[in-house]
Amino acid sequence: MAAPSSSDAERLRDKDRTRADILDVATREFADKGYTGARVDEIAERTSTTKRMIYYYFGGKEQLYIAVLEKAYLAIRALEAQLDVEHLDPEDALRRLAELTFDHHEAHPDFIRLVSIENIHRAEHIARSEVLAGLANPALDGLTQILERGRAAGRFRDDVDALDVHMVISSFCVFRLANRHTFAAIFGRDMLDPDRRAHYRHMLGDMLIDYLTS
Fold first, then answer.
1. What span, in angstroms and rounded, lies between the C-alpha atoms of 90 and 83?
2. How far is CA 110 from CA 19, 69, 119, 169, 202, in A?
3. % of the chain with per-residue pLDDT over 90
C-alpha cells in the first residue's frame, strides 16, 4: 500500500486540528451554558468553521456534547493511569492519587461544571456513550490494588472498597469547585483561596488515611 501523500497527510492533520479546536470551544460553551443553552452556531462562529462542518465531524449537537464529556473523563483517567504508585506504601499511594484528583479538578473547572450539568440531565448522555461505559473498571483497578496491599499489611480496614474511596476523593474535590461561590457567600470563605490550598490538599489525604486505618 502506498504511503499517504504529503497533501493527504496535511489534510489529516488539519482535520485533527479542526476537530480538537471544535472540542475545546464546545467544552467552554457547554460548561458555561449547559447542554440546553449551548448553541452549535456559536461554537461554529468561535472556531471559524460552519455548523455543517461540525455536524460532519460529530453528527449533531448531542453527539458533540457526548464527545466533550468523553474527552473530559478520558483526560482524568489518563492521568490516573500514568501515576506510578506501586513502589509507594499504601498510605502514600492513596495520598498521591487523592492529590492528583485535587490538582486536576482545580485546574479544570469546566470538568466540574460538565459533571454538574450532566447530573441535571440524570446522566442520560453519559449512558449513551460506549467510551465512558468502559472507563469504570480502569478507574477502580488501581485503587483496589492499593487497598489490597494495605489490607495485606494489616493497616487498612476490610469493609471499604475502591468505589467508596473514589467517592470520598471525588466528593471533596468536586464540592470544593462546584460549591465555591455559595460556600463563600454563606460562610465568607473561598475554598480556592491560595493560602489555604496546601491545607485542603493535605486535609483530603488525612481524611482518607484516618478513616481507612481507624
1. 14
2. 19, 10, 14, 18, 24
3. 85
Nearest residue to 70 via CA among 126, 19, 119, 122: 126
Closest by alpha carbon to 168, among 198, 116, 204, 119? 204
Cell numbers representing residue 143 in the block = 485503587
Task: Tell me the chain's radius of gyration from C-alpha atoms.
Answer: 20
Contact 61, 36 (CB under 8 A): no
Return the C-alpha cell found at 9: 497527510
Could you report the per-residue pLDDT of 14-63, keeping only the tens digit for each? Answer: 888 899 999 999 999 999 999 999 999 999 999 988 999 999 999 999 99
Q: Which of 104, 205, 87, 204 is nearest to 145 (CA)?
A: 87
The structure's pTM equals 0.91
200 and 176 Cβ atoms separated by less than 8 Å: yes
What is the 3-class SS of the chain, one letter each residue? CCCCCHHHHHHHHHHHHHHHHHHHHHHHHHHHHHHHHCCHHHHHHHCCCCHHHHHHHHCCHHHHHHHHHHHHHHHHHHHHHHCCCCCCCHHHHHHHHHHHHHHHHHHCHHHHHHHHHHHHCCCCCHHHCHHHHCCHHHHHHHHHHHHHHHHHCCCCCCCCCHHHHHHHHHHHHHHHHHCHHHHHHHHCCCCCCHHHHHHHHHHHHHHHHHHHCC
